[in-house]
Write a structure and sequence with these properties.
With 375 residues, this protein is α+β, with helices and mostly antiparallel strands. Strand 1 and strand 2 form a beta hairpin. Helix 1 crosses helix 4. The longest helix has 21 residues. The mean pLDDT is 92.
Length: 375
Amino acid sequence: MEPFDPTTHPHRRYNPLTSTHILVSPHRTKRPWLGQTEPAEPSNLPQYDPACYLCPGNTRAGGKVNEMYTSTMVFENDYAAVLPLPGPITPSVAHPLLTAEPIQGGCDVVCFHPRHDLSLPTLSLSDVENIVDEWTGVYVRRGTEPGIKYVQIFENKGAMMGCSNPHPHSQVWSLSTVPTVPAKELASLRNYASTTDVRSGIPTGPGGRACLLCEYVHHELSVPEDEGRLVITNEHFVALVPWWAYWPFEIMVLPHKRHISSFVHFTVDEKHAFADIMSRVTKRYDNIFSCSFAYAMGVHQRPLPPRRDDNGMYVQDADDIAHLHVHFEPPLLRSASVRKFLAGFEVMAEPQRDLTAEQAAKRLRNCSEVHYLQA
């Protein structure tokens, strides 16, 4: 029997954050493609679009007029997915298998910049820092509202990811419950902390307990570059293709020097480093296929910001088990027009990918950090 070769042999990889597996089929990367192709994302957008409902001074679909903003702008979504508290009474159930629970909260839109033609990779670093400040502000404001139990920051970039407007923006949804994916991750982090011994030389979580993501990033930093999954490293953060990645060029951004639970725990230097790596990741994305690279991006951190004591210091609690990280999940696979689809086996059995995480990381490492439109 021949020895296992992860670059050619099909295998399963385990995702310890969600307790799921993914099937990796590296031998299929040369499979011909005669399926659907996507139209190219426009790269010649105007600086101002009078028909855009996010440009400064324009009237939104709901009739409200945008301020003449010069940096970021936040407003409550005119077509929110959830409605404010108080909500209706929980309905009685006709059968124990048919339960429903009312959900309340709020949905905010965070415009990155007044210019219609920019995006994260083409914004200046100071503009990206302004966005981080705005995300932090909304996280704190919404996270301290009565009845809110979770705040999710995310961005859908590109029409193929369902983005309805190319103007640079993200969303923040605040809910009266913790959603499924972050709930799974938090449960895995708690379980790891309670069942794993701390190893010397690795940052730890709250109370000096083991942290799954502290341990994981520590291991990734020890792997030789030509064998590994690291894409970018700066003083405080790494961007890597996780071992268990599902999307072709999926990236996770996370701190590597210490355990950080949320945006509010950033030092000034950490905030700058976070903005830096977000900018560099998205530049490499655009440069893979010389296009505006579509993705879904989401920040996972503490469900809510911590409370402060009488001296204004943050009080540590059980939710500090959260290890702040960002998921980038982009659909493009072979070119600017060929995407990965969630197809039969993946819907009915488990996630599957062809390109290995190591191959994807190498492709991303080889991309320039000078944006292709500015080269």
